[in-house]
Amino acid sequence: MASPVPESATIAEVATNDATTIVVPAPSGIQVGDLLLGILSARLFSSVAPPAGWLTVIYSGPNDFHCIWYKFADASDTVASDFTFTLGNPFMYGVASVHRISGAANPLSISHTWDKDSAAPYDCLTITPPAPDSLFIWGCACAQHSQGPTTSNKGVEQTDLSGGFASMSTYALPVASGSAQTGAIITGGFLTKTKFSIAIAPAPSAPAASLYRSPQIIGAGV
Length: 222
Prior knowledge:
2% of the residues lie in helices and 49% in strands. The chain is an all-beta fold.
């Protein structure tokens, strides 16, 4: 039986400055088995840690960090009010988001690409989903603010925020084919800027408890 198409049901984001934690409100409606995806970009700190029990897709640092973690939700996540990302020391700016992704069969495949300090405006990096019936997520974080995607690329969800010198925009769109996808976001930020593209697809033939890179194949037993 075919796996359901992953869908980003809700998303919560937060930006903050000069702190040692970034506390992201929990997306509403979390159910046991949902895929939770955490994305964080921050500048000038020594380390970062996700909430307990979250596993790493990518961890790139130090100083200018871009990190992605995941967890298949358990009963404790269904009643959580927020998720806390812990930083090694206060930072210039930081921003994080948490996606609740439903219909993501376990195991599944995650492909990810990112870049930093690229000139604005952004066209987020092109990525080819590892399989049809995927979820395409793209976005950017910067030290000032970010705006929109273009109207033609506007996803099913849109969250733009600005908190002093920290901003992230993240968008999600189900795609029916495995063809290349590119999202567009305009930024007016300065200093470190990060753009990212993520593709999430069912991978029913993958081992149930494994993590590979490019693409990542993940299972709850990792």
